[in-house]
Backbone:
């Protein structure tokens, strides 16, 4: 994060609640993050962690669902939450664009691809239709679709999955946004196509100089794309730092869980994948204290009572974590987990080391 | 696509032959009045009746009668002659068709317009008071029988017997070419009555279809593009939601073109339905047969048109 210059997007203490018949869904509970111009932020978490809600709220698309929204979303010097629907519409698809998980269901099945792209242009620019159509063909070419002139006349069902996502990206880029939000852009695609889409996004980002927020449950995707990572759990950010730090020296047990449950080609074959036990919590009845404690192998009795705050990790600048374990113990556990130990073994070993270190300190 | 259409048309012809065979058989097997006797008058001698039977070809074997009937239809478009008035069934139908056509098309325009408007507004303002009120009314209209609604409307608004003498009442129908204004005003009440039930059904259909479509991912995309809500609803939403309704519209129009018997009878409109009704009361087989065949033709054609139209409405259908 470059110091001094104002970030492109600054989300401050964002809260989103949906009143429902079963109770209030606390979709976002005081989320803050920022994205600099041209930078990439990866938001990681399981489904239901609030990552999609945060981006839809940035786009002003949760208002219609009767959401209660608090906090601030500063974008290019304006708080998006204070804009009228009319002003917000001028931002959507223009300065901020978004692509979605499933490109087949996200494209209108009854309109030609070219027309859908042209419509995105015409939504924000007063240009003749013919010119918007030419722009649509240009955009298809930009995202690497062969024979764009003919393909513009095709319908979404005539495209392959990867082509459709390229078309979605082309649509998002129609008005050269300064911020692109990509919500699980590769989840619905084949693995080989995933890589193509990610490299396409990286190329377009450097060519057009836009900032990207990439939302995913797949740490592999953020490892490839992101400068910074925010890990979300139950509507909160539980860990945030540069991508390098989060991937090499993660601090939160949930992040460890995500990393250990991810297959890797480099890892030894006999290394076991460790799933995170349990299911994501209900956002209506959230667990008390640390929301992660029911699933945390290292939780202590008082963690069900105390609500951790997002705090700086000692000696690591710009690395923040919301965990009640002592920093020393966290370092110890992660160093054991990295060697392939199961969480319980790692915990015991780390506890023993911690105890002996304390004894030594006391003895001297 | 062309071979598909040709195949469908040929099947349609086969179906029409089957329908006519069935009606032909039905009216000769089931006990009804003896046509020759009906025609001969009250005190006819057996000899006269036998002569008439001979004239009408009723003493030939059934299969020969059917063959002659089919030959007449396919070679000369001849549907036979009324037992009652001796008039050509074809010309009788041709005389009555404009009234039925006027009634059906006008009503379809009204119910489609009203159904779409109410359905879309109800879907967009789901659970609002407006939505609840519209859907309550829709339920009431769906439950109201046409003839009852027709009589109520006549009682309230007909120029002759109504409480408020606003619109021309029963029996006021005139042809479009002879008096356009008279044609229009005479059809206002029948149109409204015929459209009411369908408008209610269509409003509910479109509401349901619209609610489903508005939850689709591509609607979110349309909003994310920065389109106005109006454009999102009317262009992206309605365009998808209208498809299933169009299928039903074709069939509904097809059915009504075969004669809206109840409404035509209540308002005394000289249409196909009325022709059929009168023919049934007179045991006038050739006319009943002709109108049944016409109704079957309209339904078959409507089916084919709907299938072809669907391929144009939904590009995904064309290739699968």
Residues:
């Amino acid at each position: 994060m470059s110091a001094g210059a104002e970030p492109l997007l600054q989300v401050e203490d964002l809260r989103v609640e949906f009143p429902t018949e079963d109770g209030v869904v606390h979709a976002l509970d005081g989320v803050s993050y920022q994205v600099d111009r041209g930078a990439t932020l990866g938001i990681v978490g399981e489904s239901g962690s609030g990552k999609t809600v945060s981006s839809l709220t940035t786009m002003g698309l949760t208002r219609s669902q009767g959401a209660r929204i608090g906090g601030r979303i500063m974008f290019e010097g304006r708080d998006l939450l204070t804009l009228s629907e009319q002003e917000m519409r001028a931002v959507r698809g223009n300065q901020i664009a978004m692509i979605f998980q499933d490109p087949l269901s996200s494209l209108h099945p009854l309109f030609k691809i070219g027309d859908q792209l042209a419509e995105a242009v015409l939504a924000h620019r007063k240009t003749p239709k013919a010119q918007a159509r030419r722009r649509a063909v240009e955009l298809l070419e930009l995202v690497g679709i062969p024979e764009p002139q003919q393909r513009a006349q095709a319908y979404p069902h005539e495209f392959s999955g990867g082509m459709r996502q390229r078309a979605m990206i082309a649509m998002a880029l129609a008005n050269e946004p300064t911020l692109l939000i990509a919500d699980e852009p590769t989840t619905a695609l084949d693995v080989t196509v995933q890589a193509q889409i990610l490299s396409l996004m990286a190329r377009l980002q450097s060519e057009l100089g836009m900032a990207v927020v990439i939302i995913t449950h797949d740490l592999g995707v953020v490892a490839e794309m992101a400068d910074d990572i925010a890990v979300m759990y139950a509507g909160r950010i539980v860990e945030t730092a540069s991508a390098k730090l989060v991937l090499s020296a993660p601090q939160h047990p949930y992040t460890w869980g995500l990393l250990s449950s991810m297959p890797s080609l480099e890892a030894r074959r006999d290394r076991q994948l460790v799933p995170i036990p349990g299911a994501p919590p209900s956002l209506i009845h959230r667990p008390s204290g640390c929301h992660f404690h029911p699933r945390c192998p290292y939780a202590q009795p008082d963690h069900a009572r105390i609500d951790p705050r997002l705090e700086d990790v000692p000696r690591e600048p710009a690395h923040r974590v919301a965990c009640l374990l002592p920093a020393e113990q966290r370092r110890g556990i992660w160093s054991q987990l990295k060697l392939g130990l199961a969480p319980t073994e790692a915990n015991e070993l780390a506890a023993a080391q911690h105890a002996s270190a304390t004894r030594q300190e006391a003895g001297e | 696509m062309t071979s598909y259409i040709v195949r469908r048309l040929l099947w349609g012809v086969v179906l029409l032959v089957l329908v006519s065979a069935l009606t032909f058989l039905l009216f000769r097997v089931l006990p009804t009045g003896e046509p020759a006797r009906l025609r001969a008058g009250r005190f006819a001698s057996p000899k006269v009746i036998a002569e008439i039977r001979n004239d009408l070809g009723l003493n030939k074997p059934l299969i020969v009668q059917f063959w002659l009937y089919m030959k007449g239809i396919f070679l000369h478009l001849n549907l036979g002659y009324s037992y009652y008035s001796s008039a050509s069934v074809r010309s009788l139908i041709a005389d009555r068709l404009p009234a039925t056509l006027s009634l059906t098309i006008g009503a379809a325009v009204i119910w489609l317009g009203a159904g779409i408007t109410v359905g879309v507004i109800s879907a967009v303002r789901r659970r609002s008071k407006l939505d609840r009120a519209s859907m309550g009314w829709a339920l009431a209209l769906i439950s109201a029988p046409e003839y009852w609604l027709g009589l109520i409307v006549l009682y309230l608004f007909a120029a002759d017997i109504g409480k408020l003498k606003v619109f021309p009442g029963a029996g006021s129908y005139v042809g479009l070419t002879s008096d356009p204004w008279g044609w229009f005003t005479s059809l206002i009440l029948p149109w409204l009555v015929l459209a009411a039930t369908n408008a209610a059904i269509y409003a509910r259909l479109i509401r349901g279809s619209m609610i489903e479509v508005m939850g689709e991912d591509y609607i979110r995309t349309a909003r994310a593009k920065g389109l106005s809500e109006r454009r999102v609803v009317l262009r992206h939403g309605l365009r998808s939601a209208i498809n299933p309704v169009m299928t039903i519209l074709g069939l509904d129009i097809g059915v009504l073109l075969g004669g809206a018997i109840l409404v035509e009878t209540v308002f005394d409109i000289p249409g196909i339905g009325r022709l059929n009704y009168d023919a049934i009361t007179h045991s006038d087989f050739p006319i009943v047969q002709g109108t049944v065949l016409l109704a079957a033709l309209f339904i078959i054609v409507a089916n084919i048109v709907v299938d072809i139209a669907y391929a144009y409405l939904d590009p995904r259908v064309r290739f699968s």
Summary: The mean pLDDT of chain A is 89. DSSP finds 13 helices and twelve strands in chain A.
